[in-house]
Design brief:
The complex is a heterodimer of chains A (488) and B (556).
Chain A (H helix, E strand, L loop, with lengths): L2 H9 L4 E2 L2 H6 L14 E3 L4 H14 L3 E4 L18 E4 L6 E5 L4 E4 L5 H9 L3 E2 L12 H6 L17 E8 L4 E3 L10 H6 L15 H5 L7 E9 L1 E2 L3 E9 L3 H12 L6 E5 H8 L6 H7 L3 E9 L4 H18 L13 H9 L14 E9 L4 H14 L8 E7 L4 E10 L4 H21 L11 H5 L3 H14 L13
Parallel strand pairs in A: 2-4, 3-4
Antiparallel strand pairs in A: 1-2, 5-6, 6-10, 7-11, 8-9, 8-10, 12-14, 13-14, 13-16, 15-17, 16-17
Chain B lengths: L4 H11 L4 E2 L2 H8 L4 H4 L12 E3 L4 H14 L2 E5 L16 E5 L6 E5 L4 E4 L5 H9 L3 E2 L11 H7 L7 H4 L2 H4 E7 L5 E3 L35 E8 L1 E2 L23 E7 L3 H14 L4 E4 L9 H9 L6 H7 L2 H9 L3 E7 L3 H18 L2 E2 L1 H4 L1 H13 L13 E9 L1 H21 L11 E4 L9 E8 L5 H20 L6 H7 L4 H9 L5 H13 L26
Parallel strand pairs in B: 2-4, 3-4
Antiparallel strand pairs in B: 1-2, 5-6, 6-10, 7-11, 8-9, 8-10, 12-14, 12-15, 13-14, 13-17, 16-18, 17-18
Helix pairs in contact in B: 1-4, 9-13, 9-16, 10-11, 16-17
Classes of the chains: A alpha+beta (488), B alpha+beta (556).
């Protein structure tokens, strides 16, 4: 049986695609990673089919590239690095398996998106902490597995939060659950019947298998379900803005804010990034940016369960006192930004036209982790390189998202460009490469080393690289899972 | 097995003659371990005697020792502050060097603004807590108390305590580690591996910490951890804890932004409802069930006697027969402690109001005597510092913690009565166990960061110097296993304790019946790579090739 017929036998003819248009669409993304056409795109519908695909891939040494979110993709991890690859499109596995209000857990398949999950959780009085205005077709599971930053740092008891347990088809073709789910029967239903919930991310045993799946870009296995911790949906909310002319003026305040775990959504934006985030349409971005302060801290406050309004009032009072202490003004709104626009930005998803692409059609992200005290230095580095290479400095968007209860900070630069203008593309690519090298040299931590970041990151520590390769060899001995990524 | 004297000399050359010993008197002080009598022949208090004990001072020395051990085939067993019998060598016929890390006792740095401390393995929770409280910060102290090593709880053991509900389990607080593999390689995790500092334990890419830092950690079975970074938590109290009152029941004053309560509930159902409401409402700084460790029937008599400067253990029996004390025992039979702490006085007042609303909803109540100032201040001291671990052994000098399976409130409320009934049954059958009432269940309000998941440990008190008592405890351990099996409950802590005394084949036979064996084979392969001479022990467990069913999909 040839490859196509074997794939059809596993997932059905309707779920095996190899027409040129489809393959072309999957051959590249919005990043500068070189394009490469896959041979097939397959759409499994359940865990059994995923396992059969991985077993077949091992038998035939066929590379698999798992993808859960809809396009556009941004980091090169969904583009095959080697020939003859099969894209495993998991978007059809989109069941919300269960919402457990009592224990505040939700169980999702990889194709469940933020746009689908939010209303389903809200109907049960729940929510999860989300990335900043995710695109509506962004997979919840993929976002968590890739440790995308989420907006509420006080809930980040660990960086992978709120991800808890996974059901994984490993590269070996074995199915094994992670966390506490890894100690029970190999069936969620059987575990639920025993009152076992999949809440503890650690384990099973002396290993934390979930941790080996995070940041892996699909190189270790394919997760078929995830359990995710939820929060109560607030019944009272407010938000506040603390403007400043310089980022440095906000650092001490943010340190204190995060230390005392005040507020829900907490992040820092510059005017360019804020204008894109809050603008109702791309046409508004320019004028809005002119009206906005150069830098701002955004603080969302909420109350749920008992006395929600009083919770908000107490936090607002504490926030006011803290703002005064640091000589910062506390604004209830931003000029030119409506309540609906802020609500959509903080609590909703992007429109179909993804907000980061809206200004010019293209956008290059550059992000890493650091500590807050070092963030202004890294911002200065990128600004200097952008200016040197004649990039309009006012277009450089900056977003700083506290993570892990304020210990680490996701620092993200956004460089919008017109993808149809070769000159702009070349300029942004040059800035990206030069700034990446400079940031790496200065100690920025590229914890999610996509594309060209991987080699310099892993070359920093040969021992750690070797250990990771040993782990990969155990979990995916034939290197069928997204080969060519990271250090594999 | 005889080890060449050259091995001793080689290690002596690394650390100096004053930092290595094979004097039997010293060695037996390492073999003498709590719980040994439950698993050793003739109920001996001694685990296998180490071949030698060595006290390195640096990571480089640890690495060099590991390499010598590889050359000569000497087993490696690191110990920092130690807890339980498994801190010692495991087998009589395997020459093992005990690597005592007490000279590695430095707090390397405290980054106040970014809330990170970097420590060596002999830094205890008490030491670091005292330093960081001066900066308005705190640390999660694990249930085993403030004299325990932070590196141990964060890198290689369980990591939960009364404050994990708010401050996080130390597994999540781990921000990077320095791991010397049995083969002698030094592995750095997280941001440290990119030379970016100690602030992130994840990545780059997949997190290497996942290899060893699972649920239980590797417990000294897969090399030595020589440093770690730990995330700190907010502290809104005094810069220095100033205990007051006469010993032993020191009291910590309760400031305006703090409340300390013992909360009782009428049933295990009400316990679960109260728990879930506290979890949903996100109140509480410390959440724990502490005082029942003495047994529900005797707890009030013990603790109120303990509070009296002139009280002695001889007073407890009489006190326990006082009708008022018995009434208090019933009032606090199913109870727990909660400490509320606000960043402002307004915030703690609101938390207080929310707690009142929860109690009104679930039928919970404040246990009056335990909420009076003297007892509340004692509770405050006890739980903020966790310095009363001697009380674990208070009845007759020994205890064994059984059960402790963690889960959601509905899981725990179902197994708690089984554990209580089983303990009560065994108490009635044998004089060897302390007759303290069936419920000696205690434990953290959350065994994972942020709540929603917890377990109770049954404190089975026995006299380690009385063989009949030891054997009664062992019988109870097997009874608890049978109770679990009969009720479809996963096995608890007693099973892990007992396993230390079993031959490999018996353990592997059990492991092979596990519903998922994937991880045990993964761990075997990890061991093959990083411990090719099998110098670590089975505290890092594995399953031999070919044993157990391969993982397959259950059709459901």
């Amino acid at each position: 049986m040839d490859k196509k017929n074997k794939l059809i036998a596993i997932v059905g003819a309707a779920n095996v695609l190899d027409d040129p248009k489809t393959l072309e669409a999957w051959s590249q993304d919005e990043s500068f990673v070189p394009a490469r056409r896959p041979w097939f795109v397959v759409r499994p519908q359940n865990l059994e089919q995923v396992q059969a695909l991985v077993q077949w891939a091992n038998e035939t040494h066929t590379p698999l590239v798992p993808v859960s979110s809809g396009a556009p993709h941004f980091h090169g991890d969904t583009v095959p690095s080697v020939p003859e690859a099969v894209i495993v499109d998991l978007s059809g596995m989109n069941k919300i398996i269960k919402i457990d209000r009592r224990n505040r857990m939700v169980y999702v398949e990889p194709g469940v998106t933020y746009a689908e999950l939010a209303p389903a959780l809200a109907a049960e009085g729940l929510r999860i902490s989300t990335p900043l205005k995710p695109r509506p077709n962004k997979s919840v599971m993929a976002s968590l597995l890739e440790r995308n930053p989420t907006q509420i740092p006080r809930l980040n008891f660990s960086l992978p939060e709120p991800l808890r347990a996974l059901g994984v088809v490993w590269g070996t073709g074995d199915v094994a659950f992670t966390g506490d789910a890894g100690s029970g029967p190999l069936s969620l239903e059987a575990q639920w019947q025993k009152n076992l919930a999949q809440i503890d991310p650690k384990g099973p045993n002396a290993t934390d298998l979930m941790r080996l799946m995070t940041g892996a870009q699909g190189t270790m296995g394919i997760a078929a379900w995830a359990s995710v911790r939820c929060e109560l949906l607030p019944s009272a909310r407010s938000y506040h803005f603390l403007p400043a002319e310089k980022l440095e003026s906000l650092v001490d305040f943010c340190h204190q804010l995060e230390r005392v775990r005040l507020g829900d959504e907490v992040f820092v934006l510059n005017a360019a990034q804020a204008a894109r985030l809050f603008a109702a349409s791309p046409d508004e971005i320019g004028s809005l940016q002119e009206a906005l302060p150069q830098w701002m801290v955004v603080v969302g406050i909420s109350g749920a369960a008992f006395y929600p309004e009083e919770r908000v009032a107490v936090q607002e009072k504490d926030l006011q006192i803290m703002a005064q202490k640091f000589s910062l003004s506390l604004l209830p709104s931003l000029p030119g930004v409506t309540h609906a626009q802020v609500s959509q930005a903080l609590y909703g998803c992007s429109q179909e036209n993804y907000w980061k692409l809206a200004p010019k059609g293209g956008n290059q992200e550059l992000f890493f982790l650091t500590t807050l005290d070092k963030a202004p230095g890294f911002v200065a580095t990128v600004q200097a390189i952008a200016a040197e290479l004649k990039f309009p400095i006012n277009d450089l968007g900056v977003y700083i998202q506290p993570q892990h209860q304020g210990v680490s900070q996701h620092v993200e630069f956004n460089l919008p460009y017109n993808p149809k203008c070769e000159k702009e593309v070349a300029k942004v690519k040059a800035i990206f490469e030069k700034a990446s090298a400079a940031l790496l040299a200065d100690g920025a931590y590229f914890s999610r080393p996509y594309g060209s970041w991987a080699a310099p990151v892993y070359n920093r520590d040969a021992t750690a690289k070797h250990v990771l390769q040993v782990v990969k060899n155990i979990l995916d001995p034939n290197n069928v899972m997204n080969p060519g990524k990271l250090c594999f | 097995m005889e080890i060449s004297r050259d091995a001793y000399r080689a290690i002596e050359d690394i650390v100096g003659a004053e930092n290595i010993s094979d004097d039997p008197a010293f060695l037996d002080s390492y073999a003498f371990q709590w719980l040994a009598e439950l698993v050793r022949p003739e109920n001996s208090h001694y685990m296998p005697r180490p071949w030698a004990v060595v006290l390195p001072a640096t990571t480089e020395e640890v690495q060099a020792i590991h390499r010598v051990c590889n050359k000569y085939g000497i087993k490696i067993k690191p110990i920092s502050t130690g807890w339980y019998h498994w801190a010692a060598p495991m087998k009589d016929n395997e020459p093992t060097i005990q690597i005592d890390l007490r000279r590695m006792d430095k707090i390397i740095s405290i980054d106040e603004k970014n809330m990170v401390a970097v420590v060596e393995p002999y830094v205890t929770c008490a030491q670091l807590q005292a330093e960081v409280m001066k900066l308005g910060l705190n640390i999660n102290i694990i249930g085993a108390g403030c004299s325990t090593s932070i590196v141990a709880s964060a890198s290689t053991y369980f990591g939960a305590g009364p404050s994990s509900y708010y401050m996080g389990n130390n597994s999540d607080n781990l921000l990077g580690q320095e791991w010397v593999t049995p083969a002698g390689d030094v592995v750095l995790t997280g941001s440290l591996s990119s030379d970016c500092g100690w602030f992130c334990g994840e990545g780059p890419g997949p997190s290497l910490r996942g290899v060893t830092r699972g649920n239980m950690g590797s417990r000294g079975g897969l090399g030595t951890y020589t440093k770690c970074a730990i995330k700190l938590a907010p502290w809104h109290g005094a810069a220095v804890l100033e205990p007051q009152g006469p010993p032993p029941a020191y009291r910590l004053p309760i400031p305006e932004n703090t409340r300390v309560y013992t909360i009782g509930v009428p049933s295990w159902d009400a316990f679960a409802e109260t728990y879930l409401n506290i979890y949903d409402n996100e109140i509480g700084y410390i959440f724990h069930r502490q005082f029942n460790l003495a047994g529900a029937d005797l707890a009030p008599a013990l603790w109120l006697t303990y509070l009296r400067p002139d009280g002695t253990m001889n007073d407890v029996e009489t006190a326990s027969k006082d009708p008022e004390m018995q009434k208090l025992a019933d009032e606090g039979r199913i109870s727990f402690q909660i400490i509320l702490q606000g960043r402002s006085v307004d915030e703690v007042k609101l938390q207080d109001k929310i707690l009142d609303a929860i109690m009104a909803k679930t039928g919970a109540y404040k246990v009056g005597r335990f909420c009076e100032q003297d007892f509340a201040e004692f509770t405050h001291m006890y739980l903020q510092r966790l310095g009363h671990k001697h009380c674990n052994f208070i009845w007759v000098g020994g205890y064994m913690g059984s059960w402790m399976q963690a889960g959601i409130p509905d899981f725990v409320k179902n197994y708690s009565p089984v554990a209580i009934d089983g303990f009560y049954r065994d108490q009635k059958q044998s004089d060897g166990l302390v007759q303290c009432g069936g419920d000696a269940l205690m434990g953290c309000g959350s065994s994972i960061s942020g709540g929603g998941y917890f377990g109770f440990e049954q404190f089975v008190s026995y006299d380690p110097n009385d063989k009949a008592s030891v054997q009664a405890c062992v019988k109870h351990m097997y009874d608890a296993i049978d109770d679990c099996k009969a009720n479809g409950i996963p096995l608890g802590k007693e099973y892990i304790y007992l396993m230390i005394g079993w031959p490999d084949e018996q353990i592997w036979n059990d492991f092979s019946k596990a519903p998922q064996t994937f991880v045990l084979h993964f761990q075997r392969k990890i061991k093959e790579h990083f411990d090719p001479r099998e110098l670590g022990d089975r505290n890092y467990p594995w399953l031999p090739k070919g044993m157990g069913q391969p993982n397959f999909i259950t059709q459901s």
